[in-house]
Amino acid sequence: MNQTYDSSTDSLYLEVRPLPSRRTVEIEEDVFLDLGEDGDPAGYDIQHASEKTELVQRLMREYDHQAGSACAE
User: What is the reported pTM?
Assistant: First the structure.
């Protein structure tokens, strides 16, 4: 998972897969999910990221868990 943080806007982008997004949906206030052409997550754009540390940690744990499961197969 790649991460890009912009301190001037307090925005964090968590890239799940390196591909262009086909569609973006707001999954909660100031949190946007980019979906790839196949409908699976491509990344998360999190505004006011310093106020959403629990969400960021949860997303990173979920991704690490999924990545670990994929490697085990």
Answer: 0.84
